[in-house]
Amino acid sequence: MSAASVTPRAGVIGLGIIGGGVAVSLAASGRVPAVYDIRPDTADHLVGVPAPLGSPAAVARASDVVLIAVVDAAQARTVLSGPEGVLAGAQDGLIVVLLCTVAVPVVRELADVCAAVGVRLLDCGVTPGDKAAQHGMVAIVGGDEAVVEAARPVLDDFAKAVVHCGPVGAGMATKIARNMITYSSFRAVREATALTAAAGVAPQRLLEVINEADPEGATLFLLERMRWSGTAAAMSPHMRVLMDKDLAAAQELAAALAITTPLIDTVRDNILDTLETA
Hints:
Layout (H helix, E strand, L loop, with lengths): L9 E4 L3 H12 L5 E3 L19 H6 L3 E4 L4 H9 L13 E4 L5 H12 L4 E8 L9 E6 L2 H14 E8 L3 H29 L4 H11 L8 H8 L2 H26 L4 H8 L1 H4 L4
Parallel strand pairs: 1-2, 1-3, 3-4, 4-5, 6-7
Antiparallel strand pairs: 5-6
């Protein structure tokens, strides 16, 4: 592979499940990254990934695009602005890609800190994390389009899809919303399986029904697709009746079986808001 085909140079800071997997994917794509982690032996088991450099600043000096995959906002601030942080070693025009999930105001704060020294920041939520080493993640990006395109060769080398959601903060907002759907679904499934189990039905039968009736999960976004197509308003009165009837039946069953279902209660209380089409 020619040198031109692997530019820009990439760096990865934080070699946990996501960062380590990203580094492996980059190396497998021919873009061997400069890396750093507070644990000096952390790259020993990462195929194709070199030994860590001595500091985030050293990674910045060796990179055009630095991917930060730490745990939280406090660590991100330290990695960026500490005495040996990324900004201490950054050349003008460096692109920082924030992979860790933090609050959107934190994204904007860090973008301002970077901009003050000529560094550009992209927020980039990633999912699913367990596919990082197999080039199997989706990169959910927020930032200026020109900056996204400049970083795209690196993004493409670790993500199977790159979705540019809008300006700085948009990628993180989308990742947070995606997680909200996931965690809310966990609760919905928990309440549904508790109901079926208390009614004497094996939870596996519920899973079988869902898999057979909706194998691609299309129902999850049915209402939103109706909004996009302009058909939701016409269907809303009918759906309101069905939702109220079915959720009432779920509440009655839960009461009879002494099962607590706060999500069902909340959904029924907010049917009108859920079906709002404006």
